[in-house]
Amino acid sequence: MSGIWNDFNSAQSNSNVIPKGTLAKVRLTIRPGGFDDPSQGWTGGFAKRAATGAVYLDAEYTVVDGPYARRKIWSLIGLYSPKGPDWANMGRSLIRAILNSARGISDKDNSPEAQARRRINGFGDLDGLEFVARIDIGQDTNGDDKNEVRGAVTPDHRDYAALMGTAALPIGTAAPQGYAPQQTATTRPSQPASAPGNAGRPSWAQ
């Protein structure tokens, strides 16, 4: 006996994971963690501190439109790891890409105006930003696949304008509402490595 109700090998997979490499416009929400360190520029209660000493932003990304509209993705943006600077460097790189995408800045643009747009007054400036995310796949604490956001698409990408639903914001136009660039960027001192790892989280984040 054969047929679609006898052989289910051809049935669509029930995986709830958005395919790796999908580009989608998302809205970033930072779920507050209550940890502040003004010496690092971490204020407003947005950062979280794990028992291991790692500090991060707990990010929620909601897909705005397209075939995955209203789907949510949760992942971490690293700020500090006791194991070294790698996680913080990745976090800063992701935030730069998010700002470039949300504010319509070419990653190659190092003009004074572009540099000003890559500055924020605090993490509250990131909350609510809409940008084009490049969706990736990682693993949760059980080893199952889960979506993550590790990169953003900037105006240099051919599909950026269509995905954002608007043309890239040219340098010299008004910045987004509520944006006021800070005067100096924060620096982070190097930290000693320590602490064992936890499953489902990058080793440098533990």
UniProtKB/TrEMBL annotation:
Residues 180-193 have a biased composition (Polar residues). Residues 173-206 are annotated as: Disordered. This is Uncharacterized protein. It comes from Cypionkella aquatica. The lineage of its organism: Bacteria, Pseudomonadati, Pseudomonadota, Alphaproteobacteria, Rhodobacterales.
